[in-house]
Amino acid sequence: MKIKNTMSQLKTREREERKNLIIDAAEQVFSAKPFNKVSMREIAVEAGIAPSSLYTYFPNQELLFVEATVRDSNRLIDEMEKMLDNADQPDQGLKRVIEAFIDFISSHDSYFRMMVIFMTVGSLNPESFEKLNDVVRRGFAVFETVFKKMGYEGNSRILAHYFFAMLNGILVTFRKLEGRSDEVIIAHMKRVANVFSELLVQSTGRNQP
């Protein structure tokens, strides 16, 4: 029985590894053009597997796009939650969330380019949209949590939407600055994003004696 369970665990692990390999390959392809303009054959070629094998994991491009988005979005949110949990003060928590967001996107360029394309030209069926919406709501909940901890009394959901759009705007604007190293660019993006943190501190009166 023990050997049987071990073999089953190995097969499950192997399947997950293959699935993640396919998702990684799909992100590379989706980062160049909208998912609905991509063929499953293109993804199979990028993954180095037969198209027939690809279909045993994902029936179509849309589901593969959603799986890729949910996987990496949850990884990003996990990082933000970890940073927030380790912060001693709410103000520090917001800065750490900003750092986690920018660091993650900067090291997952294909994911970011894939999402930028989707946000400008993409569309999903209702079921896929709801799966994506679940992870989006989870991300906004992290933002709202830190805003409330800082004493913000306005509409925290609207502020979370603004914050998310601002972070993405900063990344689109500065991520590929010519003639600058990655370290310089990332540091600059964090400085720009932390203007929001400073303004929120002022608006909540946390800098008042």
List the keywords.
209 residues; Tetracycline Repressor, domain 2; 9 helices
Structure description:
The protein is mainly α. Helices cover about 80% and strands about 0% of the residues. The chain is globular. The protein has 9 helices and no strands. It has a domain at about 60-205: Tetracycline Repressor, domain 2, CATH 1.10.357.
Q: Which fold does the CATH topology of the domain at 61-204 refer to? A: Tetracycline Repressor, domain 2
Number of beta strands: 0
Quaternary: single chain
Q: Kindly estimate the percentage of residues that lie in beta strands according to DSSP.
A: under 5%
SSE string, helices as H and strands as E? HHHHHHHHH
Taking pLDDT < 50 over at least 5 consecutive residues as the criterion, the unreliable ranges are none
* Average pLDDT for all residues: 90
Largest sheet: none
Task: Indicate the topology.
Blueprint lengths: L1 H29 L9 H8 L3 H5 L5 H25 L4 H18 L1 H13 L4 H24 L6 H19 L7 H23 L5
Helix pairs in contact: 1-2, 1-4, 1-6, 4-5, 4-7, 5-7, 5-9, 7-8, 8-9
Task: Briefly characterize the structure.
This protein has 209 residues and is mainly α.
